[in-house]
Design goal:
Length: 303
């Protein structure tokens, strides 16, 4: 018997874990949770390993009926304050409301969502229709099964993610230099940091297109198509940036002015259309230090 029945799927709800890194050479991006910190904390609350598969809900949440007793945690943009786990009774229906203060929330369930792994991951990659439940968003009436209950017990405490370094703030996203930085004018590069960029409606798991002034180029050539990383800031032919996100293509031909640092990628997962973003340039040493501090904060929180 299924453990979860989808009553209302929401706008875009998919199965996600921490992704499938290592397959870019095959044309498959890592995918995975847009906000991996929310996924990791939610899984810890219900006693799962941090990489267990959960449901990622976009903007409006969803409604789910549980056909067996279990524990759940709703994290991400599910509301202000600490995140907690709660027991769900057999037959209970859980309505996850609209996201507040961010674009995505996560429903983590004890045992994780049990779907066949593809290249070692349960994550749904929508462009190639692999992973998750048949490679697609959830629909009303879908049934989901849960994995075996883990050895660890649920955590009966409230965990507050706002104390994680680099996660709870709303300051500029930190960036490091991209491989084609020298292709842009000094004035254009200054604008990248000085301007306030509006997130357009063309914002999804593949990329975040930004609206604002034109970033002028000194070199009109287009680079040869090359590998692109998560968080790369490509500048399209109209001079506007596109931030590549978790379902990004693995190669691209637009010049890359910068890349969002790893410690700020989870913040990108909270971005929604009409948000306003700013960028701040840092060194590679600063970026590495920020990631170490964030991981140290997570370890302390999840201990």
């Amino acid at each position: 018997m299924s453990a979860i029945r989808v009553v209302v799927p929401g706008f875009l709800t998919t199965v996600q874990d921490l992704g499938r890194p290592g397959y870019a050479a095959l044309g498959v991006s890592a995918s995975g949770a847009a906000d991996p910190i929310a996924l990791r904390v939610g899984n810890r609350l219900v006693g799962n390993v941090q990489a267990a598969a959960a449901l990622e809900m976009t903007l409006v949440g969803g409604t789910f009926r549980f056909e067996r007793e279990t524990w759940v945690a709703v994290t991400g943009a599910a509301g202000a304050g600490p995140w907690t786990a709660r027991r769900i009774a057999t037959g209970e229906t859980l309505a996850c409301g609209p996201c507040r203060g961010g674009g995505r929330s996560y429903l983590c369930v004890r045992g994780g969502i049990d779907v066949p792994p593809v290249l070692g991951s349960a994550s749904t990659h929508l462009t190639t229709a692999i992973g998750g439940l048949d490679g697609r968003p959830l629909r009303a009436g879908d049934s989901l099964t849960l994995g075996r209950s883990p050895a660890s017990e649920p955590v009966d405490v409230a965990l507050d993610p706002r104390g994680i370094p680099g996660y709870g703030g709303d300051g500029p996203l930190r960036i490091v230099d991209g491989p084609q930085r020298a292709w842009f004018t000094a004035a254009g590069l200054e604008l990248l940091e000085a301007a306030a960029w509006d997130v357009s409606e063309a914002c999804d798991r593949m990329g975040i297109r930004l609206l604002g002034p034109e970033i002028a180029r000194r070199d009109a050539r287009e680079p040869l198509t090359e590998g692109v990383p998560l968080g790369a800031i490509q500048v399209a032919s109209d001079g506007r940036p596109i931030v590549l996100f978790v379902d990004h293509q693995t190669t691209g031909g637009y010049p890359k002015a910068a890349t969002v640092v790893a410690a700020d990628l989870a913040r990108l997962g909270r971005v929604r259309p009409r948000d306003r973003l700013r960028f701040r340039r840092v060194t590679l040493d600063e970026a590495r230090r920020a990631l170490r501090e964030q991981e140290d904060g997570l370890r302390e929180l999840l201990a």
